[in-house]
Structures are given as structure tokens and as C-alpha cells.
Amino acid sequence: MTAELAPGPNASRQRLETLFAAQKAAFENERHRPLDQRKADLKKIEEMVKVRGEDFAKAIDADFSRRSAAETAIAEAGFTIATAKHTRQHLERWAAAKRKPVPMTLAPGRAYVRREPKGVVGIISPWNYSMQLALAPLVAALGAGCRVMIKPSEFTPRTAELLRDVLAELYSEDHVAVVEGGPDVSAAFSALPFDHLFYTGSTHVGRIVAKAAAENLTPVTLELGGKSPAVVAPDFDIAEAAKTIAWGKYFNAGQTCVAPDYALVPRGSQAAFGDAVMKEADRMWPDVAGNADYTAIVSERHHQRLSEMVEEVRSAGAAVLQADFDPAKAGNTRIFPPTVVIDPPLDSKMMTEEIFGPILPVLPHDGMSEAANFINERDRPLALYVYAKSKMTARRLLARTLSGGAAVNIPMLHLSVEDLPFGGVGPSGQGAYHGEYGFLTFTHERAVFEAPVWHPSRLVRPPYGKIFEFFKKLQAG
Ligand code: NAD
């Protein structure tokens, strides 16, 4: 079905344009894919993931050099099935026209919003959850009734190939098509005049994609990254907070957009908190080198970047705690052990760039106001976590800050609540998806006013006289 891209950017561009034209023509032929067919499209994804889940687990494992099968089951396969099922079950309600009240001055008439598919949409996905972050937006786009082109990350080529093959078995390529390639293909991809472009990845590339889309006035959703803080309030038990922060940080070896990037704890408790995090990491992932549940780093370059971050702060005098790690036992895997850094310099790479790996910097705060200031002095994060016994304390921190999403006393789980919007704000992204928000991302809300054959507004026209005066009074209330 989907042919290999010919090598070279021009050939790729030609192939992209041919695919785009085919999808555009197919969309024009079927502007309103019936809901039954959309539900069947979604059901196919659910069934495919159930049947091919193992193949995906193997492909992702090979791409990462080691990916915990449990993490793939929960965060890739399980998540995709749940989102497809949720969309299928709520589709009728989401897709239905929404009636709106008509003001007295415009009566009689009927006002409503038609929820129309935008058309042909593009999805550019990253490597860190290489299956889910391609398929979850696809679910939203198919639910909305769109035609979809997907460009998966070149860093996970086996997953990209599998996505291409399984989706080619399920859908004709003028409905869903996968194109593989690196930045050159991706740049040509984002220059296509899509009806919507959905990008997940780094803030740096997000800017490039948004510029390319702006040339066509293509609306974009940008699901970006950033440094998501975890703040522990003075009333919260340090060791308890360490338990779930360690889980959130080291799940997928920290390669999660909403992983807690750094921790802010009450001054004086950094060392105790750091020890508790390491203890918990060791309890969850003993012997990381040979532990099949501890995920490796996706590429040598990324591994090197993390090592350099740690070396920079170590030579600046920060205390580095690292789980025992025997490289010989790790074999060919790119394992980076769970790491905690106490008080890294604020101008270090670790504190100025998104870490995206299993390193947790721990810094002190002198109260929740100071923690809020620390956060507000930096880019608005994708997620914010607050640990507080008092709901008031937690909510006060939320009120004083802004982030894409947030969770209280637990990291990351807000993104699994299907009905919550998932997205960033400012440098961590724009737009959102999941549940109805995803459906709406790929939907145009079209305003309609239906007047009867003869409508009283015809009387309000020049030459303006008594009826106009009456209408003016009515309008002014
Ligand atoms: P990346 O930006 O390097 O790559 C993402 C995609 O962009 C890939 O498909 C890549 O081929 C493409 N790309 C690269 N250069 C391009 C260019 N010049 N023009 C167009 N496309 C180009 O990101 P990554 O390293 O794969 O992912 C890591 C980042 O993604 C982190 O910052 C992380 O926080 C973020 N992320 C965000 C979310 C979210 O939902 N908000 C989810 C996962 C990852």
C-alpha cells in the first residue's frame, strides 16, 4: 500500500504532494464520513493494538535498545486502546450540532454550530512514546472525520516502519498514510497546506513547524516540552513525596514530556529527599543494568548529553547521587542510572534546559510563595506538581502560577483522565487534545443561523424610520 519514500528531499516532496492531493480529493468526495464508519475506523485501531501489541513492544524495545514491556503496555498500547474506545463511545454526542439561543432581536430563527471535519491533517510525532503519540492524535483526527498523514520520528525507525505497515493494512492511503524520514522530510511535510497540523516534540522544532504552517495559515497544535517542577510543601512528608516523584521521574528513564523535571523542597531537606528518591528508585528498579523494567536512553547522542549535564554540575561541586550501575551487565543497552543532583547551579544546562532523562535536580525553597516566584521567573511549564496535605496550600500554588496542566500529590496522571484537555501554554505548547478536546482540535465549529423565508429583520433597512427606532430600543435592552 504505502510505498517507500524515494531517497532525496525532492523525491520525498513529490511523494508527499501526491499523497496530499490524493487525500484532498478523497475528502472532497466524502466531506462527512458517516459516524458509523468513523466508529469502525476507531474500532480497527483498538483491535489492531490488541493483536499487534507484542510487535510494537518488540519494535520499541529494539529502537530504545531496551524498553520496559510493562511501560509499553501501559503508556503506549493501553493508553491508545483507552483513548480510541472513549472517542468511539462519545462520538455521537461530540459530533452532534449544538443548538444556541437566538436573541429576541433576531427571532424567529434557529442558531446552531455544525461540527465539521477540518479536512486533511498532518501529525508529526516524537520518539519518546513512539506509538501512542502517533496513534492518539490519529484517533482524535479520525473521530473528527479527517484524512490523516503521519510523520513519525526518525529516532525510532522500527516503530515508524511498523506503524506504516499496520496502518496501511487498516486504511487506504488516501485516508491514513505514514511517511518516514528525518528533518528534511519533516520540513517538507510541515510546508504542506494542511487543514490542521498537529506537532508533538521539542519547543525548538515547534517554532520551526509553526513558522512553516503560518505560510499556509494552517492552524497548529503544538504539544511541546519544558521543565515541569514538583513542589513539596512544608506540611507534606518528604519520604512520601519522594516515592511518586521517583516513579514519575524514572518511568521510561525520564523520557516523558510530563515527567517531573526538578524538585523544589523545603530548605534543609534536600539531602533527605534525595536519599529517599534514590531508595525508592532502588526498590522499584534494583540492579538497573540488567533490569528489564528499566528503560534505556533512545540514542547515543542523548545519552552523551545527559552525561555531560551531570559532569558539568559535578565539577561545579554539586552532590551527585547515582544508583549502582555495572556497565558490563548492561551489554549493548544505553542505560543511564537513576540520578539525583542536590543544589545544581541555576545557570547549568541541567537547570536551563529540559532534562528529558533520569536525572532529578533537587533545590530548596523558603516557602510556597518563593516556590511560586521561582516557577514564574521561568518558562511556563507543561505540567506542575504540588505535594501538600492542605488542599488550600496546593490550590494557592496553582492560583499563583500557570502551566499546561497540573496534578496534586501525584505526577503525570492528569494526562490519563480522558476528559481533561492535554496541552501546554506559551513555550510548552498551544492547543490541546484528548477526549472531546482532541475531537474539537480537528473540527471546524461552523456557525449557522437559519431564518424563515420571511424574517422581520427585513424591516430594519433604509430609509430608517419608526421600525428602526423601535429596533434600536429593543437592541439596547
Ligand atoms: P523533536 O522536536 O526533535 O522531533 C519531533 C519531530 O519533529 C520528529 O518527527 C522530527 O522528525 C521532527 N522534526 C525535526 N526537525 C524538524 C524540522 N526542522 N521541521 C519539521 N519537523 C522536524 O522532538 P523529540 O526529540 O522527538 O521529542 C522530545 C521533545 O518532545 C521533548 O521536548 C518533549 O518534552 C517533547 N514532547 C512533548 C509532548 C507533549 O505532549 N507535550 C510529548 C512528548 C514529547
Shape: globular
Q: How much beta, percentage-wise? A: 15-25%
CATH class placement of the largest domain = Alpha Beta
Number of strands: 16
Structural class: alpha/beta
Termini distance?
Answer: 62 Å
Q: Helical percent range? A: 40-55%
CATH superfamily of the largest domain: Aldehyde Dehydrogenase, Chain A, domain 1
**Overall tally of domains:** 2
Number of helices, counting only DSSP H or I runs of 4 residues or more: 16
The CATH architecture of the largest domain can be given as 3-Layer(aba) Sandwich
Major sheet size, sense and barrel closure:
7 strands, mixed
Radius of gyration: 25 Å
Bound molecules: nicotinamide-adenine-dinucleotide
Q: Write out the strand line-up for the largest beta sheet, numbering strands in chain order.
A: 10-11-12-9-8-13-14
List unreliable stretches of 5+ residues: 1-11
The residue-averaged pLDDT reads 96
The CATH topology of the largest domain is: Aldehyde Dehydrogenase, Chain A, domain 1
Describe this structure in words.
The chain has 477 residues and is α/β, with parallel strands linked by helices. The longest helix is centred in the N-terminal third of the chain and has 30 residues, at 35-64. The chain has two domains: 9-224 and 429-445, Aldehyde Dehydrogenase, Chain A, domain 1, CATH 3.40.605; 229-421, Aldehyde Dehydrogenase, Chain A, domain 2, CATH 3.40.309.10. Residues 1-11 have low confidence and may be disordered. The strands form three sheets. The chain has a seven-stranded mixed sheet with strand order 10-11-12-9-8-13-14, with helices on both faces. Helices cover 45% and strands 16% of the residues. Helix 8 (238-250) packs across helix 9. Bound molecules: nicotinamide-adenine-dinucleotide.
